[in-house]
From TrEMBL:
UniProt keywords, alphabetically: Membrane, Transmembrane, Transmembrane helix
Top-rank taxon: Bacteria
SUPFAM superfamilies, per database record: ARM repeat
Protein name: HEAT repeat-containing protein
Origin species: Lutibacter flavus
Length: 364
């Protein structure tokens, strides 16, 4: 006790700053000890949870295999498994494990077995939990619910899913769009008709990848989407026009050359170039001076595929263009349609940049 009182007395005699340091050190030491204890507990808890997860996962995989391979004469076996699964999924942790196993199997197999898994998803009651997620106030839970319904091909909830196509959170909208196209292919693109919110560039790519898996599908009329007030819908429709060779929309593409959005104008030029639409040439020439650099470059790239000797005067007007890429393209086209004129300009070229371009084009 005397030693403790001695330490207290010594502490009282210390300068204030030293006292503060000691107190803070003591508090920090207590916090560190508590953190170490908590981390040890958490590590043990997670390891134990992993063991339990692996145990139930193995058990459910076995049950599902039995369910899938049970013959028609073994309906009693199937009913027993369904009954067991209905009981298991009442527990949130077990439900998560069962859904994980079922999802993995659904991704790995096809045909009749895939239909059996879809049937089990419905019969076990998992579908009810997915539908309940749609009503959650948390956007990420909604997105998961839509993703699950898409994975297990639940088509009869189309109208319910449609409510979220313009949802404020992009992640939810992405899942809605993937649901439509995965389950209804080109018919699923009807959501574009009155879509208000933008489609992300990444989701446009995903939607196109899904559609290209269905070669036997008849593409719907994309004209209304090219005229949409939603700029992202127009951009997506332009991609569809190019991929699926929609030559019948060329007149609408020509109208898009005057669209208020520059990116749409540029993309329209690229699609018209792909179609080698000569109808666009004169329009683009007339508006060339007032066009953006991106549009001008796109037009010169277009000319590479449809250039004619009658374009020489226009090309000559741009062989000294301030933009290096346009200047190079113009000289390249000139060399193609009139080599003599190209060579004569090469001889009088004086600036370093022009000489470099001529030297490059002469060797290529």
């Amino acid at each position: 006790m005397n030693e403790f009182e001695y330490l207290i007395d010594n502490f009282k005699q210390l300068p204030v700053l030293i006292k503060i340091v000691w107190i803070l050190s003591g508090i920090l030491g207590v916090i560190i000890i508590n953190l170490v204890i908590y981390l040890k507990y958490l590590r043990g808890y997670l390891r134990n949870k992993e063991k339990i997860f692996a145990k139930f996962q193995s058990e459910y995989e076995g049950e599902l295999i039995n369910y899938l391979y049970a013959s028609e004469e073994e309906d009693a076996t199937k009913l027993k498994i369904v009954k067991k699964m209905k009981t298991c999924i009442k527990d949130k942790f077990k439900r998560k494990i069962f859904l994980t196993v079922l999802s993995k199997l659904k991704n790995d197999i096809s045909g009749e077995m895939a239909d059996s898994i879809q049937h089990l998803y419905v019969e076990s009651g998992l579908i009810d939990y997915s539908l309940a997620k749609l009503k959650s106030s948390k956007w990420d839970v909604k997105a998961v619910g839509i993703k699950e319904l898409a994975l297990f091909e639940i088509t009869n909830v189309y109208s319910e899913i449609s409510k979220y196509k313009d949802y404020p959170k992009q992640e939810v909208r992405n899942e809605v769009q993937l649901y439509f196209v995965n389950l209804f292919q080109f018919k699923g693109l009807d959501f574009l008709n009155d879509l208000i919110t933008p489609i992300s560039e990444w989701n446009q790519i995903q939607l196109l990848e899904i559609l290209q898996k269905f070669d036997d599908q008849q593409i719907t009329d994309i004209s209304p989407w090219l005229k949409s007030e939603n700029k992202s819908v127009v951009m997506f429709a332009l991609k569809l026009a190019k991929i699926y060779n929609q030559f019948q929309v060329i007149n609408i593409l020509l109208e898009l050359l005057a669209h208020e959005n520059k990116d749409i104008r540029v993309e329209a030029i690229k699609v018209l170039s792909y179609f080698q639409a000569n109808e666009a040439k004169q329009i683009l020439k007339n508006n060339f001076i007032n066009s953006s650099i991106d549009e001008q470059i796109a037009f010169f790239n277009m000319l590479e595929g449809i250039v004619e000797t009658s374009d020489e005067d226009f090309i000559l007007e741009n062989v000294s263009h301030e933009n290096f890429e346009i200047k190079t393209l113009a000289l390249k086209l000139l060399k193609f349609i009139n080599t003599d004129r190209f060579n004569s300009l090469s001889l009088v070229a004086s600036d370093v940049e022009s000489k470099a371009i001529f030297n490059y084009l002469e060797d290529n």
